[in-house]
Amino acid sequence: MSTATITPPAAVRGARSEGRIGLRANLRHISALVRRNALQIKQDPESMFDALLMPIIFTLLFVYVFGGAISGKGHQAAYVNYVVPGLMAMMGMNIAQAVGTGINDDFKKGVMDRFRTMPIARSSVLIAKIVVEIGRMLVATAILLGMGFALGMTVHTDVLHLLAAVVLSLVFGASLMWIFILLGLTMKTAQSVQGVAMLVLMPLQFGSSIFAPTTTMPGWLQSFTDVNPLSNLADASRALVNGGAVAHSVWMTLAWAIGITAVTAPLAVMRFRKKA
Amino acid sequence: MASTDTFTDIRGCPSGARPLHRPRRRVPREPPASSFPTRSGDFGTGARTRTGTGARLRNPAERARRQWAVSGWAGLSVVCRPGVGGMAQSRGMTSIKATSGGESAVRVRGLVKHYGSTKALDGVDLDVRQGTVLGVLGPNGAGKTTLVRVLSTLVQPDAGTAMVAGYDVLTQPRQLRRVIGLTGQYASVDEKLSGRENLYMIGRLLDLSRKDARRRAEEMLERFSLTEAAKRPAAQYSGGMRRRLDLAASMVGHPAVLYLDEPTTGLDPRTRNEVWREVRRMVGDGSTVLLTTQYMEEAEQLADELTVVDRGRVIAEGRVDELKARIGGRTLRIRPTDGHRPAEMAEALAASPVTGVGGATADVEDGTVTVPIVDDDQLTAVVRLLAERGFGIAEIGTSLPSLDEVFLAVTGQKASVPQDPRPAADNSDDLEGAAV
Ligand SMILES: Nc1ncnc2c1ncn2[C@@H]1O[C@H](COP(=O)(O)OP(=O)(O)O)[C@@H](O)[C@H]1O
Ligand SMILES: [Mg+2]
């Protein structure tokens, strides 16, 4: 019944790839969105409390509450060198978890609709979030190391190895973020995201070599801690800081990070795209 | 099928007839635009790389012609068709379709979206010609928001097709997003960011350079009277300010096609006028606008054509003036001074020889008399008659038909969802205390 015909301009007709976002444009979009997230933190400084206080509280707590018990009275200093590299792994995980609740919250706001109707890659919104969270992780790690040094931690290797340990936990933390983003996009409320995250985090954190060597644990638990990627990461950072065999645990950690990202990132982006 | 008969009278289509195109040109047909405007990256010079329309629209006369008030510029063809099943069948459906003046910037065919058993869209067809404003008028729950969300790639339809600026909503969403702007029914700005930062961010996401994004942000803040509040986080804005920021955000990129979902619902008259002004400006600049609304007045102010929807279906469509002619002109409301009963006044009016005001009715609850009128002469005649008979007038004013009245006229039925009427002050030009 309509007599109107629709003829797209020749320049934009055909070419299936037309409309794809080029790499440079993509980076520009991500940086605009990173700026958005950073401004949000500036507007709401309390959202940085976890990254600022968690490393301080955890270091004090573990070194003084458990340190004596685990390494023997008066041996807290030795325990610092054991636990701080492990806490680096844990810090990444706890901050990664905040991404899930953040994304879930974001989705309640209309601004997501705007992003999803704009000519930007949908992944850029997620990547920007991850970039900012990695920034938060860096802050938390710096504070953690500062605390560690203040409590007598010493680096037995060198600065490069220490940096490698930091980078490794950031890489692993970033891969975990995709899991939490997926959770955040799937669950209805931010509270339930947090609830599920805790259910997953607690056993992973405590059933690992982060806080104590696994040798005293029963066999069944040991087989769990051995495959637990957090043990691998904790072992890797300890070896990088204190010396020792590095290769196996580092490779295992990287393999986990790549595996987790490869599976969950596409799922998260897909979910993000579908979410209506 | 009473309504179909009425349509038949006006259109001259035999009841139940299938397409009868009758182009009736009132002004020379415009040359069809050769291509669609797209968002241009070159904001630096203020120039927009548009072909056809763009060039034409720099001519002020042409711009003026796009204002709603200039009616009758489009050729008109009439389509009468029998209703197709369900609701439409019982109501009868007639469409008045304008077909000249350019290509469809938005073209929707058989769009269906169901949420469980709710038929949010139940086979919607519509066209928005390039450079015009289509008003989508309908009550709450009619499916307006769902339609806008499908057209902006936020929701996938269950069936049907939708093309925007030549791009398919389903298969070319990325290209489509380059040419659209959306102001949703609910504000979609980042509440933690300031107005300025929101607009800057949008500019950057639309690939403006830092400098241009900053400039454009200032320009939009200025236009929407937000310069003073520019630094404050949007969370601290009033509802009206937020809506303005939202509109500004959707206009940053000079979209070729702009969707406005109930842009003035809940706004005070001043802000509403500001919004209208900016929408007209966008249209003057060559944008095509699809606007949803619950208010006939808004449709009349902004739209060239109107599509009336209810329960996911189009129940009437046509040029605004055509529909208006069908619905009737204005409604005159008179409040007699104390001591005069509305019933007496209505009776006096009904019994008088004043042409066309036989329909005077008294609203006892409200204490007013309602008189449908078609032109200003009748208004004068009514006032004169009341003066002659010694009736005191405490308050008198005219208003456009409400959505309810539109529905009644178009379908012979009440709207499916009760309406909350817009405050009287908003849509009546009060002649308070007119001398008698
Ligand atoms: N996401 C959704 N889930 C379930 N029902 C929905 C959803 N969106 C809209 N609906 C229903 O579809 C119908 C049309 O809604 P909507 O498009 O919002 O109408 P309008 O914007 O005209 O008020 C309503 O009955 C509404 O309840
Ligand atoms: Mg709506």
From TrEMBL, chain A:
It comes from the Bacteria. It is found in: Cell membrane; Membrane. InterPro entries: ABC2_TM (IPR013525), ABC2_TM_bact-type (IPR047817), ABC_2_transport (IPR000412), Nod_factor_ABC_transporter (IPR051784). The chain crosses the membrane at residues 51-70, 82-104, 125-153, 159-183, 195-212, 250-270. The keyword Ion transport does not apply. This is Transport permease protein. Belongs to the ABC-2 integral membrane protein family. Its main location: membrane. It comes from Streptantibioticus silvisoli. It is a multi-pass membrane protein. It holds the Pfam family ABC2_membrane. Residues 46-275 form the ABC transmembrane type-2 domain. Keywords: Antibiotic resistance, Cell membrane, Membrane, Transmembrane, Transmembrane helix, Transport.
